[in-house]
Write a structure and sequence with these properties.
It is elongated, with a radius of gyration of 19 Å. By secondary structure, the chain is of the alpha+beta class. Strands 3-4-6-5 form a 4-stranded antiparallel sheet.
Length: 154
């Protein structure tokens, strides 16, 4: 079987998940192979993570893989830096002030990357975002990670 590029494999996997009938990674592997894709269990697992696939219970009470209802946030980080007015911190929290209406967008992206940014989570209003770091002892390190993340694609 010829190997196909990852973008087309992702498209095929997305189509399979939308059918809401794939209950195991073996099911997915067989369907991909029927379409001419070569995939082992570890590759399927990585692709499922990349798509943010989740396991749900369908109408027939079967556990299946599915795409989340809400897509992952965009990775357009360079846009973020233009939405941020200021970043400040105290001994406990990091506070980001944004243009009106932008705080929840930025919070969602940061929450999506919470492990690599070493944050517990965020709370967003209209133009202000509170970030709880994983460790207050490492607050400045977390601030540096967030700042680098936001400025990465400038």
């Amino acid at each position: 079987m010829p190997r196909k590029n990852q973008a087309s494999v992702l498209d095929a996997l997305t189509a399979i998940l939308r059918t809401k009938t794939a209950g195991t990674q073996e099911d997915i592997k067989q369907r991909l192979e029927e379409q001419g894709y070569v995939a082992n269990q570890s590759k399927i697992s990585r692709l499922l993570r990349k798509l943010g696939a989740i396991k749900i219970t369908n109408e027939q009470a079967q556990i299946i893989y599915s795409l989340p209802h809400e897509p992952a946030p965009s990775n357009a980080k360079n846009v973020l830096s233009h939405l941020i007015v200021s970043i400040a911190t105290n001994e406990v929290l990091i506070v980001i002030s944004t243009n009106p209406g932008s705080a929840s967008l930025i919070a969602r992206l940061l929450d999506h990357h919470r492990n690599e940014l070493e944050i517990l989570g965020t709370v967003a209003g209209d133009d202000t975002l509170f970030i709880a770091p994983t460790s207050t002892k490492q607050l400045m390190h977390t601030l540096d990670l967030i700042t680098s993340f936001i400025n990465e694609a400038k």
